[in-house]
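thread: overnight batch results

M.L. [08:02]
morning all. the overnight job finished for the chain we discussed friday. pasting input first so we're all looking at the same thing
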Amino acid sequence: MDKKIYYNAEEVASMLGVSIGKSYKILREMNTELAGKGFLIISGKIPVEYFNEKWYGGIKEASI
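M.L. [08:03]
and the structure it wrote out:
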């Protein structure tokens, strides 16, 4: 399975140009939203598709 499923805090920080602390805060907020919708979450990680939908309007990873 070569396709990336989750981004971690370091990847989010790099993509958004923010600190690691800020990226963890973003991940917590996004995971709280997902949990509220009934999804299972992994602390410190966010699904790639959900991240792209929230930050880039749903564009695919290959386009970034």
